[in-house]
Design a protein that fits this description.
The chain is an alpha/beta fold. 32% of the residues lie in helices and 20% in strands. Strands 1-3-4-2-5-6-7 form a 7-stranded mixed beta sheet, sandwiched between helices. β6, α4 and β7 form a beta-alpha-beta unit.
Length: 207
Amino acid sequence: MKIKSTEFLISAVKPEQYPPETLPEIAFAGRSNVGKSSMINMLLNRRNFARTSSTPGKTQTLNFYEINEAFRFVDLPGYGYARVSKDQHRSWGGMIRTYLSKRENLLEVIQLVDIRHRPTAQDKEMYQWILDEGFNGIVIATKIDKLSKNQIQKQLRIIQDELGAKAGILIPISAQNRDGKYVVWELIDSIFKTNDYDIKLERQHDS
């Protein structure tokens, strides 16, 4: 299957605004400015499809994107930005927990962390939420283009130790250089296969 169509569906804050549960969904969670939108653009070979912002904390909704009318990516609200109020933090946390616990067609939640930094308390909390809801604890470490190879390996070990993710999947990527793009797609294909969906993406030529 080639990526033939991509559509932004809706920015939602409550379940009644979600699209119908007719297609499988894979969600991406992470701190503000960790690079979720940039990764989605990389995976879909689109330059400005998913909404990116240089302002941390701007993504305050669940953004639903439909691909090939066959499946959806969901960009969850970014967390951890210090300049938002405690009420906003609680609101985003509630949105995320509600989606994770209520969404029947959600196949997997993949957490993104910035490889340059140790996981924060909110990263650890998010990781535990994901595990508590029965998902696999898959982690993608972004922005590897900012580090040397030795630094990358060191930081990957730190992330595994801090999250307690030694038995899980940890994938380093760079949206800027497109490193790790096909590793992530192979993972997504395996998620579809495990859940009995006949969806397999072909490699897309980078534009």
